[in-house]
Design goal:
34% helix; four-stranded antiparallel sheet; 3 domains; Ubiquitin-like (UB roll); 11 helices; alpha+beta; Alpha-Beta Plaits
Length: 394
């Protein structure tokens, strides 16, 4: 499986991402040909790259020129029409439209306007199309199946735009980073642009460098000079035979003054609000007081919401946050038909091979109760039917 890892040590912009992919070996002519299918006539776009140095590190820099010299403001509605009418490969069109909508939605939310009224002023309308469609084209050309990224950096300072002065990171950029791992970087100036954030957060399904066999590194240069090298490193590799990995938050608190009968509804509520797992552990606290540890595993974007539920529903005064990485099997839910009706089965796979089979317990419990059958017999029968249905042997 071909994968890409975006090492956003200082940040990312649309042109940095695209130039790093060209440095990986994507012919510029392939991207130019795709852009030509969208933009013709007096606004025709020409792409070129040059090798530059940022803090003595060599990288490719992308230049976009428009015939006539006008890269004017374009509304989201018009940009969407350009993409929809373009004779693009289906996946390239789908990804480009999704990224554009993600970017426009963030701008609309920040400025409290309808998404159809968003205009890409400072971004430059044609530049935005080139960056988004170019990246989609390059990833398709490379045959990339999965994208990873590092945590994204937050610089500081202010930026002057057409409508005034904005703090950095730009409000639209911050909106796009909701639910994404971020970190502080001691640089004054814009290092992560809204377009860069939209592209990275659309494609990246996991944050953190994956286990892979490294094939090649692409270096994309930004146009500004900073105290640190203004470069995006993009790693192309092949996924190693490994478990899937993802970042989770472990919320944990000790409780010694709450009736045990209150825990069950709290656990149910935490699960309904996005917890991946909830469990209790008995402990002995100071003065030999019996207590329990309430633990909740969740994705980073759900941590604050679940912590608020714990504060409201329990007697605790504090919650510990631990950032963890967990290995997971590929999962899918399938339905099997038994003599008692359909039952959902959770299936765990490693490299496409079935490793675990787990019938949905509540469905099995209902069957057992309705038909007066031991639960163990129902679970075993569901597993047997699954194996027979999918030719896994008895």
């Amino acid at each position: 499986m071909k994968i890409v890892y975006f090492d956003c040590s200082i940040g990312a912009s649309g042109d940095m991402i695209l130039s790093s992919l060209v440095d990986l070996g994507v012919p510029l002519d392939v991207i130019q040909e795709t852009i030509n299918k969208l933009i013709e006539g007096k606004n025709k776009v020409r792409l070129s790259v040059e090798r530059v140095k940022r803090q003595n590190i060599s990288a490719l820099s992308l230049n976009i020129s428009v015939e006539g010299g006008h890269n004017h403001s374009i509304s989201y509605k018009r940009m969407r029409e350009i993409l929809e009418k373009g004779e693009l490969k289906e996946k390239i069109k789908k990804d480009s439209l999704a990224i554009l909508h993600k970017l426009a939605s963030a701008e609309a939310d920040i400025h409290a306007v309808d998404v159809e009224d968003v205009h890409f002023h400072e971004l430059g309308g044609l530049d935005t199309i080139v960056d988004i469609v170019g990246v989609a084209t390059a990833l398709d050309f490379l045959g990339v199946e999965k994208v990873y990224a590092s945590s994204l950096p937050l610089s500081y300072g202010f930026i002057e735009i057409e409508h005034g002065t904005l703090p950095l990171p730009a409000p639209a950029t911050l909106k796009l980073l909701e639910g994404v791992p971020v970190r502080s970087i001691d640089i004054e100036g814009e290092t992560l642009t809204p377009t860069g954030a939209a592209i990275i957060t659309y494609y990246a399904k996991s944050y953190g460098i994956p286990n892979m066999r490294l094939l090649k590194i692409g270096m994309g240069a930004g146009h500004k000079d900073f105290p640190l090298p203004n470069i995006l490193r993009t790693l192309l590799g092949e996924k190693c035979s490994d478990f899937g990995k993802e970042e989770v938050i472990h919320l944990q608190t000790n409780i010694d003054d709450m009736p045990p009968t209150l825990f069950e509804p709290i656990i149910d509520k935490l699960f309904s609000e996005g917890a991946l797992d909830v469990f209790l552990q008995p402990i002995i606290m100071k003065r030999s007081r019996p207590a329990v540890i309430l633990s909740v595993l969740c994705y980073p974007q759900n941590a604050e919401k679940l912590a608020e539920i714990i504060f409201k529903e329990t007697t605790t005064l504090g919650i510990r946050f631990n950032r963890l990485e967990r290995a997971i099997l590929e999962r899918e839910i399938v339905k099997v038909k038994t003599i008692w009706g359909e039952v959902e089965v959770k299936v765990g796979k490693l490299e496409g091979k079935v490793i675990t089979i787990s019938p949905e317990l509540r469905s099995c419990e209902k069957i057992a109760e309705t038909h007066g059958i031991p639960l163990r017999i129902v679970v075993e029968e569901v597993k047997r039917v699954y194996r027979r249905t999918f030719d896994l042997g008895e």
